[in-house]
Amino acid sequence: MPLNAIPPTTTLENFKIKLEAAKDQCWVDVGFWGGIIPGNAGNLVELVNAGVRGFKCFMIESGVDEFPAVEKSDIELALKTLDGKNTLVMFHAEKESEFQHQDHDFPHPTATISKINDWIPDLHPTTYAAFLKSRPDQMEVDAIQTIIEVSTVAPTVPLHIVHLASADAIPIIRQAKDDGIKLSVETCFHYLAFAAENIPDKATTFKCCPPIRSSDNNERLWDALRTGEITSVVSDHSPCTPHLKDLDIGDYFRAWGGISSVGLGLSILWTGLQHQFRTKNYRVTFADIARWTSYNTALQTGLIASKGSIDIGKDADFCIFDPHDTLVVDQTLLPFKNKMTPYHGRTLNGLVKETILRGKTIFTTTDGHLPKPTGSLLLETRAY
């Protein structure tokens, strides 16, 4: 991601700093996203030429001073600049509504000090209900509608909605695709696994943006995945140090947003699919899962020539997965740098036994990571 490490990948100079820092530090092959911020349109083409896979922008404040939100005019300029280039533009699709601008007591979702008690006195900033109410579905719907509107500026540039949380946006996404707009959409493991009704107060490990919504919304996301409006499932983990999660106080408005699930995703998805089968007779194959988590992502990022499936001439990237085993998540044992996840203590179905990168084992459940980072930096030209 362009902003989870400073400096953000918004200039060629910053990109070179990141490439240098990544040398010999990657356990898997890694591609890089560039960032679109106000005023950096002149840097975008040289970032494409240097090998970024595409660009991400925020339509609401990101929480990082160096990565401000874009306005509609910034998006239009970026799309015009990238027209005809072999790239992709991705959007954190949340947009403040006119109501939020007009109501000064409305709690800004990224505010350091919450005004939630002034706006809804019966809710406290340590309650998940308060945080959820501060980021309503309409913020996602409005943002996606704006993206669809600006797509006419450069209709050849593929557009992608990252971490869709609100199923209310599915109808306009479906219509946009039917109208021929080059739009793809992802959701995340946590939006399929958790529901707002079950999130405790002060449990800020569950905070992510957009927020986890209702169980009904959860089911509608599963349906959109099944029918193809949503094409991929990713982690969007946004890692942070424990103090940024505000674990002692549990203020959802001050805590950093992000859910760690890298390495757990396949088990999370398999567990959810078993529930879907029991409750809705929703039948899928491992080929479906591979399409959502690998093939479609490789296609989106322009890596389909070497990644995304097992085929002649492609990298031998795969894992050994036992669908009958179980995993009780213990965050203290996970190979995360900052060991905290809302999946802690949760029993998941299915277990990855071994991970193979380009034909070589890099992880097993018995030996952990083996024996040193061997991942490559993926800077080649995008291919389809």
Describe what you observe in this structure.
The chain is an alpha/beta fold and 384 residues long. The protein has a single domain, classed as Metal-dependent hydrolases (TIM Barrel, Alpha-Beta Barrel), CATH 3.20.20.140. It is built from twelve helices and ten strands. It has a six-stranded parallel beta sheet. A four-stranded antiparallel beta sheet has the order 7-8-9-10. The protein is globular and about 50 Å long. The chain starts with 11 loop residues before the first helix and ends in a 15-residue tail after the last strand.
SSE layout and pairing:
Blueprint lengths: L11 H11 L10 E3 L8 H7 L3 E5 L13 H11 L6 E4 L5 H5 L13 H4 L8 H7 L2 H14 L8 E4 L7 H9 L4 E6 H5 L21 H13 L4 E3 L30 H16 L5 H15 L17 E11 L18 E11 L2 E5 L3 E2 L15
Parallel strand pairs: 1-2, 2-3, 3-4, 4-5, 5-6
Antiparallel strand pairs: 7-8, 8-9, 9-10
Give me the CATH fold name.
TIM Barrel
Major sheet, described briefly? 6 strands, parallel
**Can you give the mean pLDDT?**
90
Alpha-carbon distance between the termini?
22 Å
Question: Helical stretch count?
Answer: 12
In CATH, the homologous superfamily goes by the name Metal-dependent hydrolases
CATH architecture label name: Alpha-Beta Barrel
**Count of individual domains:** 1
Structural class: alpha/beta
